[in-house]
Write a structure and sequence with these properties.
This protein is α+β, with helices and mostly antiparallel strands. A hairpin with a 7-residue loop joins strand 10 and strand 11. Bound molecules: alpha-D-galactopyranose (GLA).
């Protein structure tokens, strides 16, 4: 993205002195819907980010501007105060407001500021554009007002923004990846203890590529319902096994003990989660050994589980997954929360061009939508430019 353009817009609108910040979107190799279950995830930050140009304005107001919003459908300007009652009506501005409020609730002194936001993380594509915005604004405010939050605190502020100002009861993966990303490395995060380990990832002879169905879906109720299913099953298991606080602490044997006590939908969703946590651990071992074919088989298993058991796929994603299989792609699955967005594909270099051209053409023919393809580069997390 041309950040000079962003700086120029800031200057035209608000004057000199704006500082530029960036925070990226993310991929996740495996470990989906495991974060809010205390399990593991394996994300990496990417070369697509949300950017802001920002400067304190000496008032008690925030003046925000999003030049890329469609002016016909959304107000691009948003001015709001920092009290709880001042929540702006524009959705994109609510993320900025939420971050400010969460910081203030933690005792920080956030004053008025001017901000221009823009970015190249596709919206609603499962690449965490919202977390990127929260992390970007959080990192920027922390810097310009010298608030002293560490990166974990910033990630949690972003997550709390989703919970309290957007209504998505998400886990910590996206905000964590956006804050902690490191060039060339995935991050294995234990979402129960919050311990993490960088995992160098540069598979020789393979390319990681995302295919965007362009079915966009903002996460909301369907996501929250799945989290509630998991929580109900944890309560049922904990009656006999009080040490179980998350599905991470349970195993399939314990789950079997609550057959007939929990609903079949809750049961099957929880089965997916328990299996997925194990799949991630197995995949990390395969990656350490450089066995990408075995890792890829786990990715396919994840897709099947997300589609059949967790039911967060859609015909477009299933189609792309089938095509990947047909073309001998090493691993492929729906990525992120689901219900639309991208598949992530680990593809042998010699198969890549043929796979992409055939698959995108077939997809377009059937669904009448031109899918987008992104080759993934793993980059650094939140930063000042
Ligand atoms: C969304 C949420 C994350 C995570 C994924 C699914 O991206 O924001 O916390 O739960 O879905 O793995």
């Amino acid at each position: 993205m041309d950040t000079n353009y962003l700086k120029q817009i800031f200057k035209d609108k608000f004057g000199e002195g704006g500082r530029l910040f960036a925070s990226p979107g993310r991929i996740n190799i495996i470990g989906e819907h495991t974060d809010y279950n205390g399990g593991f995830v394996l994300p990496g930050a990417i070369d697509k980010a949300l950017y802001c140009c920002i400067r304190p304005n000496g008032t008690a107001q925030v003046r925000a501007y999003a030049p890329d919003e469609n002016p016909k459908t959304v107000a691009v300007n948003s001015t709001f105060g920092l009290q709880e009652a001042d929540k702006p009506k524009e959705r994109w501005a609510q993320y900025i407001f939420g971050v400010c409020r969460e910081m203030i609730k933690k005792g920080a002194t956030v004053e008025g500021f001017d901000i221009v936001v823009s970015g190249d993380v596709p919206l609603g594509a499962g690449m965490s554009s919202s977390a990127a915005l929260e992390s970007c604004v959080g990192f920027a405010l922390n810097t310009i007002f010298n608030l002293g939050f560490d990166l974990f605190a910033l990630a949690k502020i972003g997550q709390a923004t989703e919970h309290n100002y957007v209504g998505v009861k998400c886990g910590i993966m996206d905000q964590f990846a956006s804050c902690f990303g490191k060039e060339g490395s995935l991050i294995r995060l234990d979402c129960r203890s919050l311990e993490y380990e960088y995992f160098p990832f540069a598979p020789q002879g393979y390319t990681l590529v995302l295919i965007n169905t362009r079915v966009t879906h903002m996460l909301g109720n369907e996501y929250n319902e799945r989290r509630e299913s998991c929580e109900r099953v944890v309560s049922a298991i904990a009656r006999k096994h009080p040490e179980v606080k998350f599905l991470r602490d349970a195993n399939l044997g314990m789950l079997k003990e609550v057959v007939g006590i929990v609903s079949s939908v809750d049961y099957i969703r929880s089965e997916f989660v328990i299996e997925e946590i194990q799949r991630l651990l197995d995949t990390c071992e395969y990656l350490k050994q450089g066995d990408y074919e075995a890792a890829g088989r786990e990715m396919y298993e994840t897709h099947t589980g997300l589609s059949m058991k967790y039911t967060v796929s859609c015909p477009e994603l299933d189609f792309l997954n089938e095509k990947a299989k047909e073309h001998g792609v090493t691993g492929s699955r729906v990525m992120g929360g689901g219900f639309g967005g991208c598949t992530i594909n680990l593809v042998k270099d010699e198969l890549l061009e043929n796979f992409l051209s055939k698959t995108t053409a077939a997809y377009e023919k059937i669904f009448n939508i031109k899918p987008e393809v992104y080759r993934v580069a793993i980059k650094n997390g939140a930063r000042e430019l």
